[in-house]
Amino acid sequence: MDVGKTDDAAVDKRRGGGVWDGQADSGKEAMVLSIGYGRFAAAVNSLLVTILLCLSLLYMSATAHAQSTPAQSTPAQSTPIKLAILGGYGVKPEQSVPARLEAALKAQGRNVTVINHGVSGDTTAGGLDRIDWMLADKPDIVMVELGANDALRGLDPAAAERNLDAIIAKLKAAGVTVWLAGMLAPRNFGPEYAQQFDGLYKRLAEKYNLPLYPFFLDGVAQDVALNQADGLHPNPKGVDIIVERLLPFVTKNLDDYAASVRRPARP
Q1: Distance from CA of residue 58 to its chain's centroid?
Q2: Could you tell me how many helices (H) and strands (E) the chain has, helices first?
Q3: pLDDT 10s digit of each residue in the chain, 267 long?
Q4: Cα separation of 186 and 189, whole Å?
């Protein structure tokens, strides 16, 4: 009997010893895992710190380089662009579109001289006759703004188109850049005349691939407060409206011209 009890106690002891031994082994394994994880975390943290440090050094280097590199400035335009306007307005020279347009361009810092080649009451035929005289000023660009007086006199739109075609061809042959400003015929000559006349500017612009300002008197035509006593030609207030509306067209095409000849339009 004692032997049996002794055996049972021994078994219990062994069983009990087995439980504690398993818990000890688990503790050791947990300790090993904890130590391994800690080393891994430390390695990851060290790597992150290294990456952040490298990025900071690269940023500081790039910033220092950018600050030490002088900004490239637009080279000065040694020779002003000469823009001639071929058309007449019936106002004093200092109140004309060319004078006011030049002032507006210079206010933007643009080195552009606008030459007034307008003659009051001029027709397309008169403009064609004066082309050689105008070219003596060696303009870089000519804005052709003719045809209003042809329409006011009821002249044949086909003749006006031929004259303008000859003007454009002669200017381009001389190496001059051409812009075209359109006009609209008075409606008292009937819809057929208006259709023939109004369409000639678009046809010429498409034929020669020219920048076209559709209606030179936009915002001014038929406004008594903006025209002279004849009700046809703009007064100084009307001129200011014309210049205000025309300016975006001019500046855009000046920039296009400057890019085409590799010369800046600003000083």
Answers
A1: 34
A2: 8, 5
A3: 443 444 444 434 444 444 334 444 444 454 444 445 455 445 545 555 555 555 555 555 555 554 544 444 333 344 589 999 987 666 788 889 999 999 999 999 999 999 999 887 889 999 999 999 999 999 999 999 999 999 999 999 999 999 999 999 999 999 999 999 999 999 999 999 999 999 999 999 999 999 999 999 999 999 999 999 988 889 999 999 999 999 999 999 999 998 888 655 555
A4: 6
CB 255 within 8 A of CB 107: no
Residue type for 27, please? G
Q: Are 161 and 199 in contact (CB under 8 A)?
A: no
- Three-state secondary structure string covering 155-193: CCHHHHHHHHHHHHHHHHHCCCEEEEECCCCCHHHCHHH
Residue with tokens 């904890």: 34
- Model confidence pTM above 0.90: no
Task: Please name the amino acid found at residue 243.
Answer: V
Q: Which residues contact 154 (CB under 8 A, 6 or more apart)?
A: 189, 193
Note whether 83 and 139 are within 8 A (CB).
yes
- Structural Rg of the chain based on CA atoms: 42
Joined tokens for residue 235: 């007064």
